[in-house]
Amino acid sequence: MCGIIGYVGKREAAPILLEGLRRLEYRGYDSAGLSVLHGGDLQTRKKKGKIDEGLARLLQSLPAAGQPGIGHTRWATHGPPSDENSHPHLDQSGRIAVVHNGVI
User: Are 18 and 56 in contact (CB under 8 A)?
Assistant: First the structure.
């Protein structure tokens, strides 16, 4: 089952989203990711694997600053587990980030 979390507020979104995603780990997943808004641009990080071995390490080496934000843990139903298939997905312009629990 996929897990979805969002944050709107004045604090940095990435640490809050990451903790929320950790709390959704029990649901099962194969990848995790997040997008935060920073100065009108999206900062998106996503990684295959368990959160602490994938997304958390990626955020340590490549932080994502900003707020608000969305996060997602993925349970593959269509397409193999991979960084590319991880959510959030971006539109062609890179200005819209979407997470979903299903098939579009």
Answer: yes
**pTM, entire model:** 0.91
Cα(first)–Cα(last) distance of the chain, in Å? 16
Does the pLDDT value for residue 28 go beyond 70?
A: no
Q: What does the buried/exposed string (b/e) look like for 62-88 if buried means 16 or more CB atoms within 10 Å of the residue's CB?
A: eebebbebbbbbbeeeeeeeeeebbbb
Rounded Cα distance, 17 and 82, in Å: 20
Contact 24, 5 (CB under 8 A): yes
Q: What is the CA radius of gyration of the chain?
A: 12
